[in-house]
Each structure stands twice: as structure tokens, then as C-alpha cells.
């Protein structure tokens, strides 16, 4: 199953320690109340399936210079990113959400969109790997 979406012109983020990102998200997920592998796989699958649509929405609102639309999309992505434990992505969304609340569109908002898209590009393979690992663990438990 492929969850990757390509955004032409999205900046390539600086190299990051994806293993540290994987460990942090995995630790967060395992600390959830219902940390059963099948639940965690379903949670990640849902995130991976819905996030590309939210990113497309962010890009479309940016292109239309629509601050209220950016605010709503950033809020949704912030919340779901917090749930799975991707706190860096959630913090970028929080900054965009705050800057677009009751404000006219500004160029820094466009910069946040680029940063969010770039961050997801780094995280997507990590999240897919975690999804596949939890799914395999759930299937082994059956």
C-alpha cells in the first residue's frame, strides 16, 4: 500500500535522523491506552490515508491565499499529528493555525505550508514502516 503523494516544488528538508523520529513516534504510540498492534496499525493507516488530502487542501488554500481555509486544514492536521505522536509536524501546523487565525493571508503562511509538506515527505516512509510493523505484529498474534 503506497501513501506517498508528490508535491512539485516542495522543498527538500535538511537531512534528519529518521531513526530518532521512528523511535519517538513508536514510543508515543505504545504509550497510548489501547496500544494493541491492530489498533496502532489502523490508527497509522487512517493517518497515512487522510494526510495527503489535508496536505492537498493546505496547498490549495495557500494557492488561493485563503487564510481561513489554511487555519481549518492546519487545525485538522495538527490534531491528527498529535494523536500519532509526530510532534514536529504538529508544531508546524500549530504555528500555521495561530498565524492564520483571524488574519489576512501572508507570505509566512505559505512558508509554513512548504515546511509542513516537506516534513511529511520525511515522515511518510517512517510512518509507513511503523504501520507495516504493527500490521505484521497484529497478524502474527492471530
Give a structural overview:
The chain has about 140 residues and is an all-alpha fold. It has one domain: HPT domain (Four Helix Bundle (Hemerythrin (Met), subunit A), Up-down Bundle). It is about 75% helix and about 0% strand. The chain contains 5 helices and no strands. Helix 1 crosses helix 5, helix 3 runs antiparallel to helix 4 (about 85-100) and helix 4 runs antiparallel to helix 5 (about 105-140). The longest helix has about 35 residues, at about 105-140. The protein is elongated, with a radius of gyration of 15 Å. Mean pLDDT is about 90; it is low at about 1-10.
Short overview:
The protein is mostly helical. The protein contains five helices and no strands. Helix 1 crosses helix 5 (107-140), helix 2 runs antiparallel to helix 3 (67-84) and helix 2 (37-63) packs antiparallel against helix 5.
Q: What topology emerges from the helices and strands here?
A:
Layout: H1 18-30, H2 37-63, H3 67-84, H4 87-100, H5 107-140
Helix pairs in contact: 1-5, 2-3, 2-5, 3-4, 4-5
